[in-house]
Specification:
Distance between the termini: 55 Å
Strand content: 35-45%
Oligomer: single chain
Number of domains: 1
Length: 137
């Protein structure tokens, strides 16, 4: 089970989610006030994170953090980097606290095309074996 017990002197014992692999989060109960943010500008996006956590889904480890406890949770329009504490090791359906480290606009499903000014120049990569070339300026 990818949950580790942590002791905080100011609060009761909580279980910090930790894993080097993606974790399947079941739909979970979480209070609106259980989310804390690293920066104030993330506050308007908390409802989207709450919706994603309540629905369940995949939490992917954020490799650049290298701590094993920061996960990317994908919402409708944003990707949240969060730390998640559960109430009990055997019950991942109740989240005690979530800390938002970062909140980025979602780029899932976005395709970036460099150098194509005209739609006629872009052939939707019909043959992926063809060599890709870029127009010269």
């Amino acid at each position: 089970m990818p949950v580790v017990k942590k002791r905080n002197l100011q609060t009761e014992t909580r279980l910090l989610l930790e894993s080097d692999d993606p974790v399947e989060l079941p739909p979970a109960a979480i209070e609106d006030g259980a989310v804390i943010v690293q920066f104030e500008q993330f506050k308007p996006f908390i409802p989207e994170l709450l919706e994603a956590l309540r629905a369940g889904g995949i939490a992917e480890p954020v490799p650049v953090m290298m701590d094993g406890s920061t996960f990317a949770v994908h919402g409708e329009t944003r990707t949240f980097w969060v730390k998640i504490w559960h109430a009990a090791k055997s019950d991942m359906t109740r989240i005690e606290r979530a800390q938002v480290i970062s909140c980025l606009p979602s780029t899932r499903g976005v395709q970036v095309v460099v150098g194509a000014d005209d739609e006629d120049e872009y052939d939707e990569f019909e043959d992926e074996d063809d060599e890709v070339s870029f127009p010269e300026d």
